[in-house]
Design a protein that fits this description.
There is one protein chain. By secondary structure, the chain is α/β, with parallel strands linked by helices. Helix content is 41%, strand content 21%. It has one domain: Vaccinia Virus protein VP39 (Rossmann fold), CATH 3.40.50.150. Helix 6 links the parallel strand 6 and strand 7. The radius of gyration is 23 Å and the shape is globular. The protein binds zinc ion.
């Protein structure tokens, strides 16, 4: 039913224990207001994250944004990423503590870029020499692929010094900074935000900043991991929520929130992988957030998943029942007497 069991989740959380104690010493804050629509009308859907940290996740009852109610301060998130607490946490949770090499990440980025280039082929008009901004571009694999195909003029911004050094070595314009604090006068024909949106500290600020950096006719591509798809795979919200994802979108909420922030949706891409959705966007007029009845459905869905998680992971009672014990005794007698 789910991709892992309660027992496996517990083992993963035990492996993260040491890193969780490091995280406990960082500074936390509570954010009881929706980052997108400023509503205080929230539903709390989880009281811990998948690593076992006691932090809450909420859904905004107005626009459907899913976000961490308890999160690190921006300064602590800087420490969390720069001192590689994040990477170590992922390695423990997913790979039994085994580190993933820079080459292997670059390979994954190249593979991802191939899929993305295939998906957007002909949907947008990219010409040689156009400017490309890759936000959170890591080792630069995606920008390199765009450069190779279209001979674009690419800039990569990433907070990780180790990762941006690889980008720099490949000859791309590389900036070691948070996008939030980076200042520029340049405008861009194409802006990419790949596998990054969930990690942003201030979602509304960044999406507004991106819109201000688009040239007239410029295109913004972003993807996101659909929270509800992740729940379908891993179980109720506490199995999916994570300290490194301050914000989550779902397919229906993204289609409401982005037009509210002044984006026109040009195309939706369902081809990236099963849980990721891609969007090609351009600047447009801000649309009001329409009534969003699916929020109730989402909450009922999380309750159903909670029930299914409990039922799927219930102890195997036959081993404890008196019938089982009696049958075992009889079998033992038979074995003793037949010998
Ligand atoms: Zn909201």
């Amino acid at each position: 039913m789910f991709l892992h069991s309660a027992k496996e989740l517990k083992q993963r959380q035990l492996r993260c224990g040491k890193i969780n104690s490091l995280i406990k010493n960082l500074e936390f804050e509570s954010t009881p207001v929706c980052n997108i629509c400023s509503s205080h009308d929230l539903s709390v859907i989880s009281d811990k994250d998948r690593y076992g940290n006691p932090i809450r996740t909420a859904i905004c009852n107005e626009c459907g944004l899913i976000f961490l109610l308890d999160r690190l301060t921006n300064k602590s998130y800087d420490v969390f990423y720069k001192e590689a607490i994040y990477r170590r946490l992922i390695y423990q949770y997913k790979y039994h503590g085994k580190a993933i090499s820079s080459e292997s990440r670059l390979n994954k980025q190249t593979q991802y870029a191939a899929g993305l280039l295939m998906s957007i082929d002909g949907l947008i008009d990219i010409k040689e020499g156009m400017t490309l901004l890759d936000i959170g571009g890591s080792e630069g694999g995606v920008s390199m692929a765009f450069n190779k195909k279209y001979a674009m003029n690419a800039t990569v911004v990433d907070p990780s010094l180790g990762e941006i050094k690889v980008t720099e070595a490949a000859g791309l314009r590389s900036i070691n900074s948070n996008f939030e604090t980076w200042e520029t006068d340049q405008k861009y024909d194409l802006i990419l935000l790949c596998r990054t949106v969930e990690h942003l500290y201030d979602l509304k600020f960044v999406l507004n900043k991106i819109r201000s950096l688009l040239k007239p006719g410029g295109v913004f591509f972003m993807d996101f991991l659909d929270f509800n798809c992740e729940c379908r795979r891993y179980g109720p919200p506490q199995n999916v929520s994570r300290i490194d994802h301050c914000f989550w979108l779902t397919s229906p909420t993204a289609l409401k929130i982005l037009p509210f922030l002044g984006y026109r949706i040009r195309a939706r891409l369902y081809t990236l992988d099963q849980a990721h959705m891609g969007l090609l966007l351009e600047s447009g007029d801000s649309k009001p957030i329409r009534e969003y009845s699916q929020i109730e459905e989402s909450i009922i869905y999380y309750q159903t998943l909670n029930d299914e998680w409990v039922m799927n992971n219930r102890p195997k009672t036959p081993f404890k029942t008196w019938e089982y014990k009696l049958k075992k005794k009889i079998r033992n007698y038979i074995r003793i007497y037949s010998n």
